[in-house]
Design brief:
205 residues, mainly alpha, disordered C terminus
């Protein structure tokens, strides 16, 4: 299969996922019995804003890196399509994980599980991205549009695989503090959004 249909379908799924994130941002409800300023009411919803920004940037970065990864291909075979479908499945669940994190972050029960699911969703997405990237670079190099030296292909894959580490750490630390988990996920998104993380073959987690 040519890569045009693969990219078009992938872009559609990613666009839907990133759009669904905004559905968890709600207008604060006014309680006449306990009047508060709009600023105060908006402040009470900060977990939703923090989770939204983190997830939006993360999906956006994955979209950029997915384009870079797929653009190296001349064509895609069945194994690439299956791995790409698994990656898209993991991206599609991120709006749910984001809403879960935003809802339970400040609760007295369930907050650790919600945080673990949130960072775990990023971890699974990074894992599938890494598997697809490795498969293309090392197992299907004959399908690449141009020849890349083996050393360069290993370097590109290694840069992507490093992103698994902070998400694994964030998932473990969710049972220590969900705020630490959110901070780590936000830090990863912020890092890969900076020019310092860019390069000729930019790869993110």
């Amino acid at each position: 299969m040519g890569i045009n249909r693969l990219e078009a379908f992938s872009d559609g799924v990613i666009a839907v996922a990133i759009t669904l994130l905004v559905l968890d941002l709600r207008v604060p409800q006014i309680d006449p019995r306990h009047p508060h300023s709009l600023v105060w009411l908006l402040g009470q919803h900060w977990p939703s804003y923090a989770a939204y920004i983190t997830s939006f940037f993360t999906i956006g970065i994955i979209w950029i890196n997915h384009h870079a990864m797929i653009s190296r291909l001349r064509e895609a075979d069945h194994s690439i399509l299956i791995l790409n479908t698994l990656l898209l499945m993991s991206i599609g669940v991120l709006p749910f994980a984001t809403a879960l994190m935003a809802t339970y972050l400040r609760e007295s029960h369930g907050e650790s599980v919600a945080a673990a699911i949130y960072s775990g969703a990023f971890l699974v997405m990074s894992l599938f991205f890494g598997l697809l990237n490795r498969h293309i670079l090392l197992n299907r190099s004959h399908l690449l549009s141009w020849e890349l030296p083996l050393r360069e292909r290993h370097r590109i894959y290694s840069r992507a695989a490093i992103g698994l580490i902070p998400y694994l750490l964030a998932t473990i630390l969710a049972f220590v503090s969900p705020y630490i988990t959110l901070a780590i996920c936000a830090a990863v998104a912020a890092y890969y959004a900076l020019p310092i993380a860019s390069g000729p073959n930019r790869q993110a987690s």
